Amino acid sequence: MKLSEMPAASVIQADKFEMIGKPPQEIKVCVLASGSKGNAIYLSDNSTSILVDAGLSGIEIQRRMESVHLDPNDLSAVVVSHEHSDHIKGVGIMARRFNLPIYISEKTRSAAVSRLGKIADLHSFECGTTFQINGFAIHPFSISHDAADPAGFTLNTSHCKIGIATDLGIATELVKKHLRGSRLLVLEANHDPEMLQTGPYPWPLKQRIKGRSGHLSNYDSGNLLKEVLHDDLRHVILAHLSQENNSPEKAAGVIGPILAKSNTKLEIARQDQPSKLIKIPNNQ
Ligand SMILES: [Zn+2]
Ligand SMILES: [Zn+2]
Q: In what order do the strands lie in the sheet with 26-33?
């Protein structure tokens, strides 16, 4: 379905949300890239396909989508979490090349305006207010990070809730509240504190990363996960791992044991290549 044939997206209250059309058979998720050099998450219910952030060049996003057999022409919208370049680098080009609407908070748009370029179809959202893109009800919520108006998201369809929280210095009660009940979580596990401490970064950058407006360590991520873990959490994708101050083995070493007695599958998103395409069927 072309976007022009779809009902216009609108800002709605969470309690007024109604599902549009038939329940989707499955939700597909692929983290196309994750880390300080670029982030993009693909989510689809097979009729609506959304990118949360587009922090690679347009051509690289296209290349990565095609490498996992996804067609960028099928995209419906891009939703932006915050203005750091690892999240918005390709937003303008993707909007213009594929005629996509962009969903962004007003403060984030102001902070990013010179780097976004001209965007024909711009929609403002506010943290705390649910908006709808066809069958997805998207709830942005505030996170603690050194950006103008940084947001985490839950994306809800009739049968599935997906939670996304990367780029946060601390996991507040608000973050935990929103992530509870998710069937798939994309969760930051940025650094191993010891590697950060002894690593090559200058002192101010180390302070920024581990500060309240920085990034979650593997242990912070694990503590958050313990509080939101439930029987129906099917997948955890660890994201935004530092290439200098973390390793997939270190992150898995902390998070793996927390999930050991659960049915939750653990994936680790990478900077240099897309994750596998995860499918969450309706009947699960
Ligand atoms: Zn980032
Ligand atoms: Zn950031």
A: 122-125, 102-105, 77-79, 49-52, 40-44, 26-33, 278-281
What residue spans define the domains of the chain?
25-273
Q: Which helix (H) or strand (E) holds 186?
A: strand 184-188
Q: Report the separation in Å between the CA atom of 123 and the middle of ligand 1, taken as the mean of its atom positions.
A: 22
Token code pair at residue 144:
């603690």
Tally of residues, the chain: 284
Prediction pTM value: 0.92
CB 27 within 8 A of CB 280: yes
Find the 50 Cα to ligand 1 centroid distance in Å: 18
**Average pLDDT of span 129-140:** 97
Tokens 């969903």 belong to 103
Block residue for tokens 């998103």:
269
Domain with residues 25-273, CATH architecture: 4-Layer Sandwich (3.60)
Q: What is the pLDDT of residues 21-77, one digit of tens each?
A: 667 789 999 999 999 999 999 999 999 999 999 999 999 999 999 999 999 999 999
